[in-house]
Amino acid sequence: MNFVTLAIKNLLRRRGRTSLTIFGVAIAVAVLFSLLSFNAGYEKQLSGELDSLGIHILAVPKGCPYEAASLIMHGGVIPKYLSNSDVEEAKKIDGIEVASPMLLHQFYKDGEPHIVYGVIMNDVSRLKTWWKVEGRFFSDTEDNVMVIGKNLAEEEKLKVGDVLPFGPDKIPFTIVGILERTGTQDDEFHFLPLQVAQRIFDKPDQITTIAIRVNDISRISEISKQLEDIPDIQVVTMTQVMGTIMNLVGSARTLLISVIIVAIIISAVGIINTLLMSVNERTREFGMMKAVGASGFDIGRLVLIETLFVTVIGGVIGLLLSILGSGLIEGFVKGIIPYSPAGRLMVLEPGLIGLCLLFSIIIGVVCGIYPAIRSSRLTPMEAIRSNLE
Amino acid sequence: MKEEVILAKELTKIYRRGSEEIHALKDVSFVIGKGEFAAIVGPSGSGKTTLLNLLGCLDTPTRGSLRLNGIEVNGLKEKDLVKLRRENIGFVFQQFFLLPTLTVRENIELPLLFSKKDGYKSKIDEIIEVVGLKARAEHLPGQLSGGEMQRVAIGRALINEPKIILADEPTGNLDSATALRVFELFQNLNSQGLTLIIVTHNLALAKIAHKIIQLRDGEIVRKASSHGLSKKARS
User: Fold this and answer.
1) Which residue among A63, A186, B111, B196 has its CA within the 20 to 30 Å range from the CA of B35?
2) Could you tell me the pLDDT band of residue B181, with boundaries at 50, 70 and 90?
3) Residue B174 DSSP SS3
4) Residues A68, A179: one domain?
5) Are the beta carbons of A293 and B59 separated by less than 8 Å?
């Protein structure tokens, strides 16, 4: 027998209480780990998503540029349009590598929103060089053809060669290609030749945005200024989008951190309370131990080992809960933050796992130290007489 | 005179409750020799347990001195008291104080955890045999009778090979037949040279002891051999 087995057997004496304490620690650690991993994953994923757009600047109609940028990235519709002439003006600016007009349209099928991108595939394939397709991309002069995202194909059970009645007039469109999974919003969209999209949705000469890639990113600011000289155009750089979103998310994150701090304090107070109750109940037992040769240090060590057991097991369970329930947690957090990129936001980094385990050990030491000192300082007589008086 | 193991001189213990002083022991003096079996008797509140706790270094006297195995206890630091207890004293309590999740074997082994003694497996087996619990070694306290639990407590007191066993009402929670068997066990241990000091209410059982110290109101009213409580210790 050693101190660890003695501590385990002591904890097993009060299974219900021990389980509840472990559960309390598990919840605190799960929340902490979820936030930290979400925090680490969010910025990475957002940055990845912005990169995946393959663009440096979005030219949008004058209005609220950030809302427009957000809607365009997510596939929403804004009620203002640019024209083909704006695209021609933009293309004249020196330093622009690609200026690709896009028309976004949204329609509902079975209550679910579907997003259609009218694009010039020749431009898009230069912006999104990583796109791969099962089947083929369409050429910009083709009619009634489309490429669709992988998730959309799976959800709708569509395959290359299928013919789909599409648009307000239910014109038959042939799916010529299905994008290989990108892990971004592109997996959900329909892509049509721009002119076809403008025609079937009755938006002649209208475009929602111009996606711009520059030759030299150090010139983004200068090129943005020149773009804004074009009437009707407002520009949003991806750096601005990232900064704005991170600011918006920052406030939600502050709220979450506050919740976590409260959860941790409640958990810590609960653990200390449980330990003090346990120490008080076992005062005579500690007296007996001292009478048969235990030192104050031995008693304190035993209490501390018990505490560490509770908190470390709680920490491990919390991590497992957090990892297993990451989908649910992610869904919840995505619901309360103003913008969330596609893909998994919670990253399971070994460093974070280690940090959370360390946290549970620190909680154990912090919570256990006072009960341990208190129990170690009891004189054997005080302890033995405690329940006799 | 046998080699002295305990020398108590004018031991006094005063408890304070607010402004009230309770004189639990008043100038108690006696000597216990090596291998002696002494019983401390007296009515409730007479100071028996207080005296036993002082002898066991679980408490410190307000006045007076105590020598255990030649070591002056007064003024020892807690660390030294722990060492003195580990090496010299085995305690047996009326309430047994067994840990309910430990088996008989583990309860007996418990003091070794604190004294950090290794290689005592055969000693544990030997003590389980001595206290007559070989068949119950892997049982939990909840599966034992009162007498068996007290025998476990006695085994636990013996495991560190103490020079003195202090027992506080060891038969107080037992029926008379079981109590007799526990006393026989004590007698047996004493016959092997162990010094025993037992606090008891039971005069019949106390008569088995070599020496009887009778307390009343914190004072020794009689010290006697087991032949009778006739000699006045104080007059």
Assistant:
1) B111
2) confident
3) coil
4) yes
5) no
Beta pairing partners, B95: none
Q: How far is B115 from chain A (nearest CA, A)?
A: 7
Contact predicate A347/A270, CB 8 Å: no
Distance linking the first and last C-alpha atoms of chain B:
23
Over residues A118-132, the mean pLDDT reads 87
CA distance A2 to chain B (A): 6
What end-to-end distance do the CA atoms of chain A give, in Å?
A: 33
Handedness of CA B115, B116, B117, B119 (dihedral sign): positive
Residues A88 and A215 in one domain: yes
Closest-CA residue of A relative to B79 is A295
ipTM above 0.85, yes or no: no
Mean pLDDT comparison of A12-16, A311-315, A338-342, highest-scoring range: A311-315
Contact A188, A73 (CB under 8 A): no
Asked if residues A148 and A158 have their Cβ atoms less than 8 Å apart, the reply is yes
Range of the domain at A197: 63-231
Structure tokens at A153: 């194909």
Mean pLDDT of chain B: 83
Q: Is pLDDT larger for residue A45 or for residue B220?
A: B220
Per the CB < 8 A criterion, the answer to whether B77 and B93 are in contact is no
Q: What is the pLDDT of residue B78?
A: 82
Number of Cβ within a 10 Å radius of residue B175:
11
Site from B110, B127, B163, B197 to mutate, A interface, most A CB atoms within 10 angstroms: B110
